[in-house]
Every structure is written in structure tokens, then in C-alpha cells.
Amino acid sequence: MIAPAVAIALTALIVVLGLMTALTTVRGSTALRGRPPVGGDAASDFLVASRGVTPLWNAAAISGEYISAAAFLGWAGLLLAHGADVLWLPIGAVGGYVLLLAFVTAPLRRSGAYTISDFAEWRLGSLAVRRLVSVCVCVIGWFYLLPQFQGAGVTLWVLTGAPPWTGWALVVAVVAGLVLSGGMRSITVVQAMQYWVKVCAVAVPAIAVLAVWRLDGARDLAGDGPPKFPRATVVRVQTDVAVRVPADTDVTVRGEVDGETRHGRPVRLPRGRHTVAEGTELRFPAGAWVPHAERLPIQEDHAWALPFARGHDHPLFATYSALLGVLLGTMGLPHILMRFYTATCGSAARRTVAMVPVLLALFYLFPVVYGTLGRFYTPELLVTGDTDATILMVPQRLVPGTAGALLTGLVAAGAFAAFISTSCGIVVAIAGTVSQRVLRGGVAAFRLGTVFALAVPLGVPLTPASDVGAIGAARLVTLALTVSACSLCPLLLLGIWWRGLTAAGAGAGLVVGGGLAVAAAVTRLFGGPQDGWPAALLAQPAMAIVPLTFAVMVAGSLLTRRRVPRRADRALARLHLPEEIINR
Amino acid sequence: MTEPRRVAVSNPRTHRARRGPVGTGWGVARDLDEQTELGAVYARALIRAQLRSALLTAGAVLTAVIGLPLLLTLVPALARARVHGVPLAWPLLMLGVQPVWIILAVRQLWRAERTEREFARFVDHP
To answer: What's the mean pLDDT when you consider all of chain A?
Structure first.
């Protein structure tokens, strides 16, 4: 079906990977060789790249690291399925950087700590809090890694038909190689370049596809009913799926539907729920209604195009809670926070982050094109629920032939850049955090930490009944962001701005907030209630847990007021006084 | 008999000491350096000024984030209105909000740097 696309896409991938590896080996080996590999010096060089990166490079690197599978694949897929209701996500993401700039960046850089765990220990003088923060960093990182691996599996499957685990294996191997050989200096350069790779990979095909759509007569994408197949379409179902059919639909089935095996006879599926077995081939005539995977809403086109038009449970709460989770979650992402240490001083870090909204806003302009056109050109993704593949399918659907294959290759290269750069950032953050104290520092410990960081999420698909694939990349990343909003964000905000924070208060807040958020996320990952308030709360728990976490931290600190660290005033002064005043 | 080897005694602050006392010798900088009560008061003033500007920015962000969904829910006619056949909500959310974030970020950067510059000037010439 997409044989030329495969060849070209794979070539594109190899070029991108080769480029990165070449850069890494050159930069990485000089970084390692340039200094004597003894003790903390090499380790600190490894971790924060000696703090000599200019704001623009660093801003591109931060944006590159932030644009993950969720932004690249997931958001377009969510748009295809949910429509205007998910337009809020990029608003929250970019707004999060404005808050990050206002509250966290410069003080955190001035604390001079490598990781958030270092910051927490230095600020509160407590090893217990340090350990709690390290646990939070690991959990957030793992939740964030899952969708990257998942996205890689989907991408490789769309391109080559290879089973999803090959995508997981490929990304893990490349990330392990990059992190183990290069450390962070190489990664700064690679990350910054990858930002531009991603922007090109999403922008060029988007513009081409838009142009083709205009030439095609710019057909109105918004009809008046639920989506229909614009032309005769064959859907192959890869795993057992339950679908809902919006109205009676004729289909030719080769395989098993509702437990009955058929061999290419046409049947009429009545409106309602049906189960389709693995390996079944469904042949829809042009104009047939599109069956939707059970967990996707069936929306009429005009409801899809308007926010809050879908009659689902508590739409305003879901929107606010998701926005809050993304806004505040962005503040506590360990791999982004680590990037500030590569800036030379607090105000350089601040200038870096001030550029990030520009770069992110530029990127977020484009995925929407795929999501909207996908509604008309690739509605079959709604049948299997693999909406993450939207951005990969739309170019070849609109632009047939070699040009389409080239565009698909470009998108695939950008997608892999997204998985790899985000995963690298997270793995460095986890490995840095774990190795500094638990494994007593040094390069060997950092390498062990890398293996540890990559190994845990690999175990998740092995657990029975986990539903990683069905949730989709964007929702998985939202889970990670919610955990961060409920744990590290309050710690940072209070630790930086309130001298009265005590170790006991912070620890209690981390346990309560982080614990509840993780519990909600895990429940979500393994099923959980489907409707009513419990489902709305579980799906987007930030609105309830964030205020609770702040309350617990403040109340706990007030109750243990006598144990405010004696050097709290000094610590706050150090965080907020410009370096040139302290160091003169 | 060997004389003890001569050792140059130096201090990282020597160059500053040689410059002579700044002002009366009891400047703000010294208070900050030595963490006196007075220095702590100055530091607290700076923190308060920075917190004020950060809260202003956060207020603006929250107003937009709370206001927009509310606006679109309460005035469905606004969401339903079409510009060249596109529902207004799309260009509003896609293109309308990000520039606001960029302006807020630049303003916040500018304000924080100005606060620090003023503080540095104050420290040099109280």
C-alpha cells in the first residue's frame, strides 16, 4: 500500500539518526576527553554541559525537548476525534512557560543546584524530601516516556506494518546509545537541531497538503452528520476492537464480527455496539457511516467544530482541569528544569525561557491542519481508534505517489526526532537525579541510572490489562503533566517564594498530591469508571488535587513552624539576588 | 639555618580592598554580603517586588485561561459565528491566545530585569 513511502521514510529516518549520532560522537567524545574523567568534574560536565549554551540554542533545545509524541502525533489525533474541545491544550502548554518564566526560571538557576532533588535538599535541608522528589521525578519521567515509545510503535507500524514492539525497541536503543555516549552537551546541540527538524517536518507537509486541498476544490470539511467514508475504504483491524455504529451501515466483512465468521459477504450492521475480531477486514462503500471505536465520541460535524458542543459530562470542569494540569504541569517537568542549569546565570535562563513561547507557538500552528483534514480524508482511523497515526496518513492520502511518500518520510523523521529528543531529555533527568545521591555520583552511576530510567516503562506493556495504546499519546502526556502539577509545581512555587515552607510540610504535600495524582493516573491506565463525576475527576484530576496539595504543604509548614530552616532567609536571598550582586 | 619560605598571602577580595572603601564603607552591598538584618530587609524588598510582577503576569494568564472557556460557554453565538466559513472559536483559540502569551512573556522578562537593574543601582548608590 505504501511501499515507496516506506523506503523513503526509512531513508529519512536513517539520515536523521545518522546525523544525530555523528554529532554526538564528535561532540560527546570531545566533551569527555577534554576533561580528566575523575570524580564530580566529569560527571558535572556530563550532566549540565558546563553551562555554556547561548539563550537561543537553549530555547530551541527546550522547545525541542518539550515537543514530544503528544504534540507531534497525539494532538492531531485528538483533534480528529474530539474536535474543538482539545484546542485548549497548546494554550495551556505555552501559557505554562509564561508562568515558568515568571516564578521559577531565574531563582532555580540561581540556586545552583543540578536537579530538582538537589534544589529541594538545599532549600529544605532534608534528605527525606530529597528522596520523595527523586521518586516524583522518576514517576513523571516514566509516565512521559510511555507515550514516546508508544508513538514510535505506531509510527513504525504505519510505515512498515512492523509490530509495535519494534518501534519501542528502536527508540530505546537509540536513546540509550545517545545518552550513554554523549551526555548533555551533545544533547543540547542535538535537541536544538531537532526542534527545527520537527518544525520543518510538520510545516512543509502541512503547507503542501493544504495547497492540494485548495486545488482539490477546498471542499467543505464540515458536513451535517457524523463522518462518512468519502470513498470506498478497506479497514484491517489489528487488535480486537469494540465499535459503535452511528446508523445502519452496509459493509463487506472478511473475518469475525460479533462472534460470527464471514467470508466476504455483505452485511448490514445495525446501529449500536459491535465487536470486531483481530485480523478482520472490513470493506466500506463510499458514503457509509464511519463506525467509531467505543471510547471515541460519535460527533456530528457541527458539534465537532464547536467547543463545548458535545453533550458529554461536565465539559467546563474537564476543560479547566486539563488546562490547569497542563499549565502547572509544565512548571514541574524535570527534564525542562534541568535545562536551566546549562544557562550561564539566572537572567540568561530567564531570557532563554522568554523565547520558548515564540518557538512553541510556531510549532503548534501546524498539527491542526492534519487533524481537520484527517476528519475527511482518513476517517477510518476512528474505526480502530489509532488516531495517533493521523499525521502520518494524511499526506499520502492527499498527495499520492512519490511526493506523498516523501512528505510521509519527512513527517516520520520529525516524529522520530520528537520521540528521541524527549526521551533523551527525560532519561538524562532521571539518570542524573538517581545517580547523584542514590548511586553516589560519577559517570558509571549515570550510566546505570540511564538503564534504570529506560527499563521501567518497558515493563508496562507486559503487565496484563494495561491500555496504553488505547489512551493515546496526548492523554498519556497529560497524565504525566498532572502528576507534575500536583507534586513538583507546588514544591517549587512555595520553596522559591515562601520562607515558611518546612521539610515536613513539603513532604506531606508531595506524598498526598503526588500519591493521589499517580493513583488517578494508574486507575485511568487500567480502566476505571466510564461516566459521571468519578470519571470526569479521574480523567482530569488536577483541579481537585492541586489546591489540596498547596493546602497540605502550607498547613503542614504552619504546624511545624518551629522547624523552618534557620537559613531560609539566606536561601531566599540567594535565589532572588542577581549573581553579580552576590559575587562581587 | 633556612629561612621560612616566603608565601604570598592573598584574598580573592584583595582587588576590591585596594580600590578603597566604597562610599562610607558600610554600603548596601556589604550588608547583603554579610547577611545583616539590613541586608535581609533589602533582599526581602527585592523578593517582594519580583513576586508582585510575577503575580501580575500570573493574574493575566489566569484571567485568559478562566475567561475564554467561560466566554465561549456563556455566549454560544460567539463560538458559532463563522469567519469565511470557519467557526470563530478556531482562529480565536489557535491564533488569538499565543500572541498574548508571547507579549506577557516579554513583558515579564522586561519587568524582572528592570527590577534587578534598579536594585543593582540602589546597591551601588543607596
So the answer is: 83
